[in-house]
Task: structure prediction
Amino acid sequence: MAVQLEFLKSIPYFSDLDIAELESIAGLIFEKTADRAEMVLLEGESAANLYFVASGVVKVFKTSAEGKEQILSIVRPGESLNDVPIFDGGPNPVSALAMGPVLLYGIKRNDMETILRDHPQVALNVIKVLARRVRHLVSLVEDLSFKHVIGRVAKILLEHVGGEMGRGPRLTQQEMAAMAGTAREVVGRSLKALEEEGAIKLDRHRIIITDKEALKEITGAPS
Amino acid sequence: MAEMPVIEPQKCDGCGLCVGVCHLNALAVVNNIITIIETVECDWCTDCEAVCPTGAISCPFEIVIQEP
Result:
């Protein structure tokens, strides 16, 4: 296996390392592949390896007891998976699923400890990565706990519906997220919740408002 | 013609992440730009939009009221 040193250098964990340091780390890396829809990590299981996405995309999420899914992040090439249990020794706090064919670079927990001891710059990089992760999760917690995002998404749908005057503007989930002041992941979940409430129906590229009064009620506006 | 995701070629950096996540194999990188294979009917899972790091591909929804 030939781990590309240039790619390794692009991983935030290993930025600012010299070639000799990267070569010694490359020797500790193993490859793991996953097919589309294959679970890469299972919530609650013990974690033996830290992973970096080398190619493809991995979805990191939590599932409620009722089977509802909340996406926490979309992990792209160069980004890491499984950091928390590797550093605190606990079980995986999340599950991860390959969204397509994925190549992962893995490092065993013990080897990661060796890397941290031998290369202090990596420890500084890890702190930065984890701090960014905390910032992202704090923002998501804020969205999920304090903001009535479902109501705002319902309002956006009512404001942009097409009518007798013609078709309304077409909106992406990203645009709805920007309008609602939240993350795309939260909009996706809100749309699913509205569908479960029977207020809308998702039909490929169309969002069909099936119960306008229910949707108005969810916005908190008088009907 | 079936509705397909919208691509803004000037934003596409040809990374191909969307190709890998499309479970219908409706996307391909041609000349370093993402291209839609229109023989496949997209089911609007929006995964391609979710993974695109540059916002070059989007899956807009039309919002309509159900006919009585």
Remarks:
- Chain A has nine helices and ten strands.
- Residues 147-219 of chain A form a domain with the Arc Repressor Mutant, subunit A fold (CATH 1.10.10.10).
- Chain A touches chain B at residues 36-37, 55-57, 74, 76-77, 99-102, 157, 160-163, 167-168, 170-175, 184, 188, 201, 204-210, 212 (CB under 8 Å).
